Amino acid sequence: MGSMGLRFDPVGGGQFKQAVQAMVEAEKQPIKALESRKANEEARLKLFQDFKGRFAGITKALGDFTSLRKFRELKAELGDGTSLMNVSLDKDKAEPGTYQLEVLELAERSSIISNAMEDPDSPALGMGYIRMKFENGDSREILVEEKNSSLKGVAALINSEIDSPVKASVIKDGTDPDKPWRLLISAKKDGADNSITFPQFYFLDGAQDFYVEENHDAQNALIKLNGFEIETGGNQVPDFLTGVSVELKAAKPGTSFTMTVSEDYNKVSGKVKGLVDELNKVLEFINKQNQIDQSSDTRSTFAGDTSLQNIEFQIRNLVHNRLPVLNESGELVRSYQMSELGVEFEKTGLLTFKEDKFKKALERDFDGIGQAITGPNGFGQMLSKAFDGYTRSGSGILANRESGMRQRIKEIDNQIDFKSRNIERRVQTITDQFSRLQGTLSNMQRQGQYLSATLGGGGGGSMIGQLLGG
Predict the structure, then answer these.
(1) Shared-domain flag, residues 269 and 389
(2) Which pTM value belongs to this model?
(3) Does one domain contain both 115 and 208?
(4) Which is more confident, 276 or 17?
(5) Using the 8-state DSSP alphabet, how is residue 219 labeled?
(6) pLDDT tens-digit map of 365-375
(7) Which of 236-240, 345-349, 420-424, 464-468 is least confident?
(8) What is the pLDDT of residue 302?
(9) What does the DSSP assignment read for 136-157?
(10) What number of CA atoms fall less than 13 Å from residue 391's CA on the CB side?
(11) Residue 303's Cα: distance from chain center in Å?
(12) Which CA distances in Å does 104 have to 222, 302, 432?
């Protein structure tokens, strides 16, 4: 009877590999379930971060609703005076009012101009020096070498002195086409109070004479305000009136114009619209989460989430609440609902803002509406208090919810990692066991072949062959 021998499946191949793969697939089923849970949690986290981000716009918009000063906006209208001055307002200080203005004279600065020359680049003035007096009273002599003794060279030397009270420019004057170039030196500041001592020039052996041909004295601006003449030290007049700064552009004696400082209803209305738009971003998210049907996968959404429903409830409540207007004694004199001011809920669940309705209400009672919206019990303050519990950094509901989701994802990752390492260990253990079994069987086979060869092909050999599978 011939020996068939033993056929062993090598480690990692054939039937052994298939068996190990089947075992791994079976062990991986719980991991796949965890990965599915993780995917749902990550989808919810991403969705929640979108929701949380929508509150940033509300928080920013509410910054203008913390006080009447921040809420209000002012505008200045100049009528026929737009070409004569510019106006800027500090809304925290300025008050509405009407003023009659007339710009009689602009402020001017001290200046001197040199004689005319043919070439601004020609070093024709000779060697010498410039004696300059600075704002702090110090004097300095600046050496003029021959290479710098042109109009442009002298101007550059003067302008290189940072503390100089003057500025030099080379200008082209068409009065004499043959000699059009002059050096103009002007004080850096307007007004009679900023009169300065001009540089003195000393040159020797120049091919061209240099001297001051004409000088111009500084003067203050002169404005008529409600019939009274007022001098200003410059054309930039900060706080010309309380909270009102002006820049004079041109003088036009005999022409008066009206400056009106008033509430800017368009800008105030824009602030309310901006807040409504930001609130709608949150409401839109909540409404979308509540729109579910049979095909909706609620595992990765916030359908029916009570926190979201509570936010919507609070917004609705504040829109429908009556907002108090108090007198100086703290007594209630009237109240408003936001719906009376143009902010209303639509059937879609979103807010709408009727700007015309709001502006007409402002025209009737700006101070009262301002208090109803920005006062201690006004719409803006109550909205801020309601949202503070949600948006507070670190301890707010939104931060806690996000932290909880991240923690769940981390725990799932830990479970997946633990189970994956267990599978790796089991595969390694089975592989090691099978390797040892192969080694044992191989040794038995070699021993059987040795015995068969030693005992011959008799009964003994047949018996050993049968034991070994031969």
Answers:
(1) yes
(2) 0.65
(3) yes
(4) 276
(5) B
(6) 999 999 999 99
(7) 464-468
(8) 61
(9) TS-EEEEEE-GGG-SHHHHHHH
(10) 19
(11) 32
(12) 5, 69, 105
Predicted confidence at residue 457, as pLDDT, reads 53
Range of 99-103, 138-142, 183-187, 212-216 with top mean pLDDT? 99-103
Domain's final residue, options 393, 424, 445: 393
At residue 275, the 3 state secondary structure works out as helix
- Collect all residues with Cβ–Cβ distance below 8 Å to 254 and sequence separation of at least 6: 102
212 and 165 together in one domain: yes
Q: Residue 407 — φ and ψ, nearest 5°?
A: -65, -40
Identify residue 78 by its one-letter amino acid code.
L
Q: Which two tokens stand for residue 200?
A: 């003195």
CATH code at position 149: 2.60.40
Residue 16 — φ and ψ, nearest 5°? -65, -45
Sign of CA dihedral 447, 449, 451, 453: negative
| Same domain for 369 and 309 | yes
Q: Which two tokens stand for residue 219?
A: 């003067």
The whole-angstrom separation of Cα 29 and Cα 453 is 52
Number of domains in the chain: 3
93 & 124 share domain: no
Q: 231, 226, 222: which is closest to 256 by C-alpha?
A: 226
Whether 120 contacts 150, CB under 8 Å? yes
Contacts of 436 (CB under 8 A, 6+ apart): none
What whole-number distance in Å separates Cα of residue 305 and Cα of residue 315?
Answer: 16
Tell me: do 95 and 195 sit in the same domain.
no
Residue 440: partners with Cβ closer than 8 Å, 6 or more residues away: none
Is residue 406 within 8 A of residue 413, CB to CB? The reply is no
Q: Are residues 324 and 313 in the same domain?
A: yes
For residues 257 and 177, state if they share a domain. no
- Residue 18: inside a domain: no
Beta bridge partners of 236: 247
Look at residue 162 in the predicted model and tell me its pLDDT: 84
Backbone dihedral region of 440: left (phi > 0), alpha (psi from -120 to 50 degrees) or beta?
Answer: alpha
